[in-house]
Specification:
Nuclear Transport Factor 2, Chain: A, single chain, about 240 residues, about 20% strand, alpha+beta, 8 helices
Length: about 240
């Protein structure tokens, strides 16, 4: 009679690991990658697609995991990607609109200073606002000394003052009412923000109120020291687009 032999069960740890293995959806990985890149959406509207892709892939991963939970993992990863993508997808337009509003506000303040100098019969200071920030001089009592030492700049100033628009604004002085009318365009040009604005200038002549329009083209660029400053690049007149 043969002795009884107990049943022996041999468990391979590798087999146990295989049994417990669950697939990580590629969509969850892609969703997390795009969500981590989502801060780029704060730079330019063209990059708003980055958090949008993060949202799509993360949502896709969650759907796959929900349909087959025993075989798939990565739910926390997909949720993280989803939340980050939603956050920056909502923040990017808000940040962009706030930045554009701030730029328009700064442009109007700069234009107001230019009109103020002309109303105060200080064309030498107004002309400095039309020079590039690196060449701009301090707007103090020594400014005329600078013009006297630079015949070429003084000649440019004289040409500016001789233009019909500047002559008219100087002649009207503080008697003219300058009102902001509209923004024609706002755009990004290379490393500068550009804004085109229209102003209405109203004055009285022989008891009759008259008006004309002034168009100013400005650019805001970053300087070497990290600051940003404005410059008036174009002057003109005529009729605004929506008033023609």
């Amino acid at each position: 009679m043969r002795p009884s032999v107990p049943d022996v069960h041999i468990t391979d740890p590798h087999d146990t690991e295989l049994a417990a293995y669950r697939t990580l959806p590629g969509q969850a990985v892609l969703g997390l990658i795009f969500s981590l890149l989502s801060p780029l959406a704060l730079v330019d509207p063209m990059l708003w697609t980055v958090p949008a892709l993060g949202l799509i892939f993360s949502r896709w991963a969650l759907v796959r995991i929900r349909k087959n939970p025993p075989a798939m993992t990565g739910r926390k990863m997909a949720l993280t990607g989803l939340l980050l993508s939603l956050l920056f997808l909502a923040a990017a337009p808000t940040h962009w609109n706030a930045s554009r509003w701030m730029i328009r506000r700064e442009a109007r303040q700069f234009c107001a200073q230019w009109f103020k100098f002309l109303a105060q019969d200080e064309p030498q200071k107004a002309f400095q606002l039309m020079m590039g920030p690196p060449e701009r001089q301090p707007l103090d009592d020594r400014l005329w000394d600078y013009y006297r030492s630079r015949p070429d700049i003084r000649k440019s100033l004289e040409g500016n003052v001789a233009s019909p628009l500047i002559r008219t604004l100087l002649a009207l002085g503080p008697g003219a009412l300058v009102r902001f009318y509209q923004i024609e365009a706002q755009r990004r040009e290379k490393n500068a923000d550009a804004v085109d604005l229209w102003y209405a200038v109203t004055y009285e002549e022989k008891g009759e109120r008259k008006s004309f329009f002034v168009r100013l083209g400005l650019a805001r660029s970053k300087q070497r020291n990290g600051t940003a400053d404005w410059c008036i690049l174009r002057l003109g007149g005529g009729v605004p687009p929506d008033a023609s």
